[in-house]
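[RESIDUES AND BACKBONE]
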Amino acid sequence: MEKSVVGRNEYISIPELEFYDIEAKIDTGADSCSIHCDEIYLNENGTVHFKLLDDSHPNYSQEDIVMPVHKIKKVKSSNGKSEERIFIKTAISIVGKTYMAEISLTNRKDMKYPMLIGRKFLEKRFLVDVSLKYKKKV
């Protein structure tokens, strides 16, 4: 399988959630993908309720999103602290292709990019060229 090349930052889309051209940091140091959400909580029926991004992002719609919980797992954040996170499973479009991904829901309000693409998603699919930035809008 031939690997696609991505830059250190890319625009990604999450078609199922109707979010397009979200800035993402390609982070080979991160194990998993994560996206900035607000008002995250578990429902008793095995679903998660959240609002994607915040009012500083142009794609913010204030819509409540409810999706099945894929898994709940402890994740160590960049500051070294571990926290339990809820993961959803959905398709991500990046550099013209679409793949299924596990995405953790977390508050990234103080981070520069609303989305991280981690190495588990990248492996066997992509090569990262750090000299590139935003190779292609999806």
